[in-house]
Amino acid sequence: WDLCAGPHVANTGDINMDAVALESVAGAYWRGDESKAKLQRVYGTAWETPAQLKAYTALKEEAARRDHRKLGQELDLFSIQESAGGGLVFWHPAGGQVRHQIESFWKELHLQRGYQMVFSPHVARVGLWKTSGHFDFYKESMFDQMQVENDEYQLKPMNCPFHVGIFKQGYYSYKDLPVRMAELGTVYRYERSGTMHGLFRVRGFTQDDAHIFCLPSQVAEEIRGVLDLVEEVLSTFGFTKYEVNLSTRPEKSVGDDKFWQLSEDSLKEALQSKGWDYKVDAGGGAFYGPKIDIKIQDAIGRKWQFDIAYVDEHNNKLRPIMIHRAIFGSVERFFGILIENYAGAFPLWLAPMQASRLAT
């Protein structure tokens, strides 16, 4: 919960002391920097009425019961081992079986919808990340460079430049478009040790990336296809309640006005054709294009955000539009959400143990 979002009061005298509770004490580094002094952080919460406090406390207790870190250990699904380092996930056989089912379902659905599976390297020369713009806009989230012979390499934080590279190796006429590529690709992002949290925030994770290269006239139709796919995936896992946002051009961005207008209009057209209500997040898009994000609601009412689709302009002779799309975002994070949504009791098709024979 983002309790800092408010509502706020002018002074502490406005707080109902019958609706206040101190929750916990924990260590925290000043400004989240582990090289700075460690402080004691006191957690508390305040509500308008005791009834609201009671409801919040009950919800928090239920969330603790469903905590994927606790259930992951009890059900022997996964572990994060200090000997290997924080934020690096070990998938145990039971968790691996559930993940296999999730990924098999994902692959089959994409193949049915005309996507081609691709695979890409885990590292690349620094020059690639400079060309793609990630080095300038994403440097703080990338691991340090490594020296290999006379070249500098970095672990990939995203799969996008590799899919662009695959596309550029081909020779496509306008008749060949759209071209849809998909990959379950492992990416690596530097997260401070104090910010990592179970499967929800890790340093190495698998992203279900897809890129669609299409003509400007095909963008709205392709986005509509993405939204149909998202709806099918989420409903299969039992998520039927969600909020939709359209995030538009941020202050710092690349690309001309014509591209941004086309992209935003295409996203709006696709959302309207689905009949989905949505809110506009002005300036909330990526530096290279506008995006659609969805907040799904789990079994106990919590909301989880997924950045579903971005639109980018790919620069080659055809100047096609590139749609960057992810549904799970991170397989690890989605798995953690599923554990908590089902409280560890997976539906039969996902359950690591399908049946057990009892001795008579």
Automatic annotation (TrEMBL):
According to the entry, every stretch annotated as the Aminoacyl-transfer RNA synthetases class-II family profile domain falls at 67-347
Checking InterPro entries in the record gives: aa-tRNA-synt_IIb, aa-tRNA-synth_II, aa-tRNA-synth_II/BPL/LPL, Thr-tRNA-ligase_IIa, Thr/Ala-tRNA-synth_IIc_edit, ThrRS_core, tRNA_SAD
One GO BP annotation of this record = threonyl-tRNA aminoacylation
Q: What class of enzyme is it?
A: ligase
Q: Which Pfam families match?
A: tRNA-synt_2b (PF00587), tRNA_SAD (PF07973)
Query: Which reactions appear under catalytic activity for this entry?
Result: tRNA(Thr) + L-threonine + ATP = L-threonyl-tRNA(Thr) + AMP + diphosphate + H(+)
Q: Which residues form a coiled coil?
A: none
Q: Which UniProt keywords apply?
A: Aminoacyl-tRNA synthetase, ATP-binding, Ligase, Metal-binding, Nucleotide-binding, Protein biosynthesis, Zinc
Give the EC number(s) under which this enzyme is classified: 6.1.1.3
- Give the Gene Ontology MF terms in alphabetical order: ATP binding; metal ion binding; threonine-tRNA ligase activity
**What's the family?**
Belongs to the class-II aminoacyl-tRNA synthetase family.
Q: Which NCBIfam families match?
A: thrS
Q: What name does UniProt use for this protein? A: threonine--tRNA ligase
Species for this entry: Haematococcus lacustris (Green alga)
Its lineage reads: Eukaryota, Viridiplantae, Chlorophyta, core chlorophytes, Chlorophyceae
